[in-house]
Amino acid sequence: MTPVASARGPIDPRLVRRSRAVRAYLVVSIVLATLVAGLVVAQAWLIASVVSDGFEGSGVTEAVTTALVALAAVVAGRALLGWLHTVVSARAAVQVKQQLRSEVVAQLLGGSPGSTASGSGTASVSSAVSSSSAVVTLLGPGLDKLDPYFAKYLPQLVLALTVPAVVVVSVFVADPLSGVTIAVTLPLVVVFMVLVGYVTRDRTERRWRALVRLSHHFSDVLDGLVVLKVFGRSRNQTKGIAEVGERNRRETMGALRLAFLSSFVLELVASISVALVAVSIGLRLVEGHMTLMTGLFVLVLAPDAYLPLRQVGAHFHDSAEGRAVADDVYAILDAPAGRASRFPAGRASGFPAGRASGASRDHPTLAGATITLEEVSVSYPGRTTPALAATSLTLAPGQVTALTGPSGCGKSTLVDVLMGFVAPTTGRVVVRTADGTTYDLADLDLTAWRAELAWVPQVPGVLAGTVAGNVRLGAPDASDRDVLAALRDAGAPDLHPWRDVHEGGANLSAGERRRLAVARALLRVRRGGAAVMLLDEPTAGLDPTSEQQVRRALRDARVTVLVVAHRRALVADADAVVPLPAPLVVVS
Ligand SMILES: Nc1ncnc2c1ncn2[C@@H]1O[C@H](COP(=O)(O)OP(=O)(O)OP(=O)(O)O)[C@@H](O)[C@H]1O
């Protein structure tokens, strides 16, 4: 796993720094906890006074009745404050999760608000969030693990910081010896908590990673289930899933065992400490060195010095998974924008990735622009040969350029570079606008850049909905007539615009999906303002009539066109042909 900058204080400073909701919540929490601390002391004092009055045999006097009413009010007040704290915590959890979810989604989609927040740009995306299944786990059940952090751990932590302090001071004022005893033993509980925390941290992190691995594995198997079934290998996967599931179970049980054990240790330390205070009070009461009222007050109050700390220790386990999740979230948000943006980026699922857009970057208009690739090459880590060897080519405005070459020579990679999905390893893409200004693609706002591109990938993306809805993705405001014309010119007059389309175009043939994507690109040029078309084998698998239609549409588009072509007819139509050399074969 790539190391990520993890924040390991009692409170994750990144959450406090980046979320106003958390800061506001902490302020409210501290106020509520201080009120609770006051009520705890008041409650102990009232109980002590009622009981000592009872022992003195003064009967149910007016003072006793008043104390009992006040005691009832204090108990009700504590209940009310507890309820308020729960409500505030739950609200904060919802707000923070909502904020993190939208920040992560925006970062993955390239909007990158996270990069403007506090991204140092030094962390890299953890391998735990490098696949779509991991992202789904992270944004769904993953972020929900922040609930215990906000609902249980943080309120308790604030109580643990305020209540013991108030209790120690009150006890010290009433009985200095007990005050000193509590003040000396309290840090012991903290020391044990820290020790337990260190052990727990690794355990819970391991458990979270096991859960992510399980979801990865499961999603991979589901993806390949059809192939596995056809080749009779699906049953073998049962064993794999069972093994990963078993590992997850073992990690969960280990984390639970540790949680129970550490609660026991904290209880023990706290009980021994209270016993020390009780023994000293008992002896002094017997010897008559202390009043019953003071003794009772300290005895009732002493456990409350330890209780919040013990509980914070217990809730630390509930929150630990949330902290591991926060690490993954901030690994995405703090990653250099491009790395995170690879998630949705075209075909590419590995490095080198493209980058996210930057709102302040330039965005020249592409109408009439010349796009030049200067010695652009792309190499993927771990590969001995470049995916695209150093290539130079010029896309002249309004011309159709055909890119040819054997399979695997990097044609689609070159298209990915132009789409901004993949950053060149060497070389650069230069844009010379109609007025003669030149720009480097690396400096441009990619969202604006892509808005002027019409793209037909080798495997077109199709969303659930209708044919027309999919075609309109290129130009949402286009009329029905425009959609029909685009479908006709893409050689797809047979595709009814209102026909239902399933997710991924599962109910369309490969040829229908391709023609739908061509229609979408045509509409983007005609009504969406695109000035450049990038098409990756748009006529593969089409019948001669449809192919003829697509070729004509490309010729008539009157924009700059780069078409990856294997078919001779498509190449023959081009104004310029750029052949890429066969990839180097390295035999080791
Ligand atoms: N994400 C990736 N990670 C590593 N290698 C990759 C990645 N994408 C592509 N490649 C490799 O880069 C090389 C070029 O791939 P590319 O898809 O660009 O070729 P192509 O010329 O378009 O091939 P075809 O004509 O078969 O579509 C191939 O060897 C491919 O295996």
UniProtKB/TrEMBL annotation:
Keywords: ATP-binding, Membrane, Nucleotide-binding, Transmembrane, Transmembrane helix. GO terms for biological process: cysteine transport. InterPro entries: AAA+_ATPase (IPR003593), ABC1_TM_dom (IPR011527), ABC1_TM_sf (IPR036640), ABC_transporter-like_ATP-bd (IPR003439), ABC_transporter-like_CS (IPR017871), ABC_transptr_CydD (IPR014216), P-loop_NTPase (IPR027417), Type_1_exporter (IPR039421). Its main location: membrane. The keyword Transmembrane helix applies. Residues 27-321 form the ABC transmembrane type-1 domain. Pfam families: ABC_membrane (PF00664), ABC_tran (PF00005). GO terms for molecular function: ABC-type transporter activity; ATP binding; ATP hydrolysis activity. Residues 371-588 form the ABC transporter domain. It is a multi-pass membrane protein. The keyword Cytoplasm does not apply. One of its GO terms (cellular component) is plasma membrane. It is found in: Cell membrane. The chain crosses the membrane at residues 24-48, 60-81, 153-174, 180-199, 258-283. NCBIfam families: CydD. This is Thiol reductant ABC exporter subunit CydD. It comes from Mumia zhuanghuii. The lineage of its organism: Bacteria, Bacillati, Actinomycetota, Actinomycetes, Propionibacteriales.
